[in-house]
Amino acid sequence: MEYIMMIFLIMVVVVGLIVLLTGYQITRAAADRSDRTQDRALFLLKQVTTHPLFVSEEGVLDDAKLTALATLPDGCARLEDLFGPDWFLEVETLDGPGAACAQTNYPACGRWELCKQDARAVAYDLPVNVYRNAGTILARDVLARRDLAILTVGVYGR
Fold first, then answer.
1. Domain boundaries, the chain
2. Does residue 13 register a pLDDT over 60?
3. How far apart are CA 24 and CA 1, in angstroms?
4. Which of 61, 64, 74, 120 has its Cβ near the most Cβ atoms within 10 Å?
5. Which value, to the nearest 10 degrees, does the dihedral of the CA atoms of residues 97, 127, 148, 130 take?
6. Distance of alpha carbon 133 from alpha carbon 62, whole angstroms
7. What whole-number distance in Å separates Cα of residue 62 and Cα of residue 43?
8. pLDDT (tens digit, 9 = 90+) per residue, 79-98?
């Protein structure tokens, strides 16, 4: 009977250790996934502020490029080929009109959305300049202007 009790206690300790270690592994896996999602969101933020597809010069987004990308029928699918799936980009000027930019209302707009979904996401905001080709009209030329905007780049959690 003593051997049975001793074996039972040893089994309880072993099962307890297995449960404890399994719980720790599950917690670590979730934390690693969260870290990878945050790293990817930061990587996308850096790519958007430097990639020639979005900027006229480093750190200055180009409104004509953003409008063209936002109005492409399959623009999101093309961008997912470059940057991977499950991400979004949103740019909103602080002092301009808040309408979403399209070919019909350009340049009288101030918001661009690419690959936006309604889901939980890890997102980062960054103040940026937006190069606006529509500005002060002179006798023969248009002086471009730069508007302050908030760039939001995020990754959807799975």
1. 2-156
2. yes
3. 35
4. 61
5. -90
6. 8
7. 20
8. 888 888 888 888 888 876 67
Are the C-beta atoms of 112 and 91 separated by less than 8 Å? yes
- What the block records as the tokens of 104 is 């019909």
The residue among 69, 70, 51, 67 whose CA lies nearest residue 59 is: 51
Question: Phi-psi region for residue 86, left (φ > 0), alpha (ψ -120 to 50) or beta?
Answer: left
Which three-class secondary structure string do you get for the chain? Answer: CHHHHHHHHHHHHHHHHHHHHHHHHHHHHHHHHHHHHHHHHHHHHHHHHHCCCCEEECCEEEHHHHHHHHHCCCHHHHHHHHHCCCEEEEEEECCCCCCECCCCCCCCCCEEEECCCCCCEEEEEEEEEEEEEEEEECCCCEEEEEEEEEEEEEEECC
Q: Which residue has the higher pLDDT, 18 or 108?
A: 18
What pTM value is reported for the model?
0.73
**Rounded Cα gap, residues 142 and 18, in angstroms:** 71
Asked if 98 and 92 count as a contact pair (C-beta separation under 8 A), the reply is yes
